[in-house]
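Budget justification aside, the reviewers requested a transparent look at the raw inputs and outputs of the sequence design task funded under Objective 1. We therefore reproduce one unedited record. The lines immediately below are the structure tokens for a 319-residue chain.
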């Protein structure tokens, strides 16, 4: 890290001390060219990936999946089965890689931990009054500590969008800092719920706010609102993590979640990553897909490439 980067990182770390400093910095970020961002994302979405490169992209995408179930009807049996699938997505093909993580509610963490222990597959849990984020801070922190104590090594927290949209940036900053502390050694993914932020400028500001407060990942969505991950929003977030690393020397991951259902979708995101931030982020440590149905399509396309036969949608288990 250069002396200039060290100085910049030190200066940025001081921003959280006052509301005024945070507001001045966040509103001083360059505005997002909406038309340019949408055109750029659409252009990259037309890139064609074939043969060997496609096979490599599919395996990478499988390794980047956070296999997720976040339903009120989740049961110990269901999440154990999901964890088993995460370890061996295609039981008939041992060369198929495992996924990046399994993501569940805190109450389901102990059952997933039984299956994943020592496997290398991460155990993520949503916390902080997911999906609304509308709960007293002490309850959010207790939620986080309980998930970590039960075995989660990644926490997906939600920001208080009401506070953010009202301009109470320090309140949001302080909650992220406190959640990061409550997470201990677990990685913290900060969910921005971009579908509720209304503008790309707000997405950029929320991305920087989450990173300044210590988030290890920034994540688009809970999957519980109508507008979830989109390519233009993810482009804005990728530009933010690129610029943040340039300013501070610290790399932060990105996780689009919700609405990514097909191999074609996933490959569009991988192209976006490669062209925006480069190969450093083409790794499950730095890029993930929050998805429930994506994995099956990746597996079907993988089978087609390796065997020449396209398996039907009922060939793999439904999650």
């Amino acid at each position: 890290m250069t002396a200039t980067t060290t100085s910049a990182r030190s200066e940025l770390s001081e921003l959280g001390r006052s509301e005024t400093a945070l507001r001045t910095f966040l509103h001083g970020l360059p505005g997002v060219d909406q038309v340019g961002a949408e055109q750029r994302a659409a252009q990259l979405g037309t890139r064609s990936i074939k043969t060997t490169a496609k096979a490599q992209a599919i395996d990478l995408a499988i390794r980047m999946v956070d296999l997720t179930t976040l339903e009120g009807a989740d049961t110990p049996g269901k999440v154990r089965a999901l964890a088993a699938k995460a370890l061996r997505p295609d039981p008939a093909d041992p060369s198929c890689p495992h996924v990046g993580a399994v993501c569940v509610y805190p109450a389901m963490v102990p059952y997933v931990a039984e299956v994943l222990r020592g496997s290398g597959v991460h155990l993520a849990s949503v916390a902080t009054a997911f999906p609304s984020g509308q709960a007293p801070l002490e309850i959010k922190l207790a939620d986080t500590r309980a998930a970590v104590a039960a075995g989660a090594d990644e926490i997906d927290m939600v920001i208080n969008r009401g506070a953010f949209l009202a301009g109470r940036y320090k309140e949001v900053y302080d909650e992220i800092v406190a959640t990061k502390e409550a997470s201990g050694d677990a990685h913290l993914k900060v969910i921005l719920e971009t579908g509720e932020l209304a503008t790309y400028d707000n997405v950029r500001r929320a991305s920087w706010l989450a990173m300044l407060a210590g988030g290890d990942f920034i994540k688009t969505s809970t999957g519980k609102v109508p507008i979830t991950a989109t390519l233009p929003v993810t482009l804005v977030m990728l530009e933010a993590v690129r610029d943040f690393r340039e300013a501070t020397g610290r790399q932060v991951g990105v996780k689009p979640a919700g609405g990514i259902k097909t191999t074609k979708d996933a490959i569009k995101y991988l192209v976006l990553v490669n062209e925006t931030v480069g190969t450093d982020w083409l790794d499950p440590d730095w890029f993930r897909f929050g998805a429930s149905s994506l994995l099956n399509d990746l597996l079907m396309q993988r089978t087609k490439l390796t065997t020449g036969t396209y398996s039907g949608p009922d060939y793999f288990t439904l999650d």
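The CA atoms of residues 241 and 252 lie 6 Å apart. The chain has one domain: 3-305. Computational costs for records of this kind are itemized in the attached budget.
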